Structure prediction request, 145 residues.
Amino acid sequence: MSGEINILLMAYGSRLMKGIFKILSILLVLSAMFSCSSPDFSLQGRWIVERVNFDFDERRNTPEMISQFGSEESKDELIFKNDSVVYISMLDYNGDYQYMMNENSEIFFKDKADVNRLGFLKDNKIYSEHNTAIGKMRITFIKED
Prediction:
């Protein structure tokens, strides 16, 4: 009788191991498929302005002022030199700064005194938002080819 129990346990253990092996194999294949489907994306390179939008108080600012400010900001650029240094030419920032990106794709940079939010990366674009003297400014950057 104990021989029959051993045979049953071995057969059950073998089926269990085969099931676990199948599940792990499927997970491995799916993991490889998803990791290969999206190419590695690098911030490194020059980013230029695609669009500038403003939320502003029409009673305090004229359309001409907004247009002039938007024209100046459309010349902004970001140049990611490597995985820790970005050259920023935007608003009052002009130079090289240390940066980091967190797990939520938010990009921060450090100037002399503070850590500032540069924006966030989504769909291969950087979305940046800043409060200015004339209102809230939103800039969308795209990577230059």
Strands lie at 45-56, 77-80, 85-90, 93-101, 106-110, 115-122, 125-132, 135-143. The longest strand covers residues 45-56. The two ends are 75 Å apart (CA to CA). The mean pLDDT is 80.
